[in-house]
Amino acid sequence: MEYFLELFLGGLTRGSIYALIALGYTMVYGIIGLINFAHGEIYMIGAFTALIAASVFSLMGFSQISILVLASTVAVIYSSAYGFTVEKIAYKPLRNAPRLSPLISAIGMSIFLQNYVHLAQTSDFLPFPSLIPEFEFMESYAHIISSAEIVIITTTAVITMLLTFLIKFTKIGKAMRATAQDKKMAMLVGINVNRVISVTFVIGSALAAAGGILIASHIGQINFYIGFIAGIKAFTAAVLGGIGSISGAVLGSVILGMTESFATGYVSSDYEDVFAFALLVLILIFKPSGILGRSQIHKV
């Protein structure tokens, strides 16, 4: 039972990280119908920025908690600026182009950012400091769940609730929903669609950066390629749950994380991706729109 609980909590932790990235995918897709394949690289840039900022603040003698807060703030702001810039350069000029054009642009931006960080940093894995402090009351349960895992799960839960509140009850959230439903009608009623899209990219990038910081601090190392793997997994989770749906992105992420964790624990780590993608195929065969996704009706 203890081993099962350990795998369950490990899967929940994986799913929480996937969720932070998948939320960015699903928000962008819901607003403009575009898969932002450079989103995983924003996650990676957030982790690298946090590493550099944490190193600087550590040399300045800040405490562990202060380093975590300050490094996270710098990384989130820097990654959000990247997300904003990427949207303006790579996606906005192609907004009315055939759908294949922004897809190719997204893949190209992903490759560009990978190689940019590769050349600016290194191809080697770099050690990442443990920014999350160990909680004393968790010492007797450390073999089942760590303090870092508790922080990751809690942070994802809080961010999901705040994001849901933002979209349902705030002015910008209503503008997002209106833009997602019909851009032309949203413009006719006075909504600045370009601003809404930019805000969506900024929020998604901030969430990806938060995920990068948390998982890097938990695992203890990063390199320029982590964004590609995490991005593919998070995109899979978003599709699994129903891309375009916030609750679907979270649900799909948790299911994917659990599948990988239990496949690793009871079968073999060599088969975790096999089970994860086999589950995706099965669900999409019986429910092509994803678990919580809605089938789109195309007018003719």
Characterization of this structure:
There is one protein chain. The chain has 300 residues and is mostly helical. The chain has a single domain (2-122, 149-286), classed as Orthogonal Bundle (ABC transporter involved in vitamin B12 uptake, BtuC), CATH 1.10.3470. 73% of the residues lie in helices and 1% in strands. The protein contains 11 helices and 2 strands. It has helices spanning 2-32, 39-59, 64-91, 100-120, 147-169, 171-181, 183-188, 193-219, 226-241, 246-266, 272-286; strands at residues 126-127, 221-222. It has a two-stranded antiparallel ribbon. The chain is globular, with a radius of gyration of 19 Å. The termini are far apart.
- Can you name the CATH architecture? Orthogonal Bundle
Rg computed from alpha carbons, rounded to a whole number of angstroms: 19 Å
Adjacency order of strands in the biggest sheet: 1-2
Category by helix and strand content: mainly alpha
Shape: globular
Question: Strand percentage, roughly?
Answer: under 5%
CATH level-3 fold name: ABC transporter involved in vitamin B12 uptake, BtuC
Assembly type: single chain
| End-to-end gap | 55 Å
Q: Could you give a short account of the major beta sheet?
A: 2 strands, antiparallel
Helical proportion, percent range:
over 70%
Order of helices and strands: HHHHEHHHHEHHH
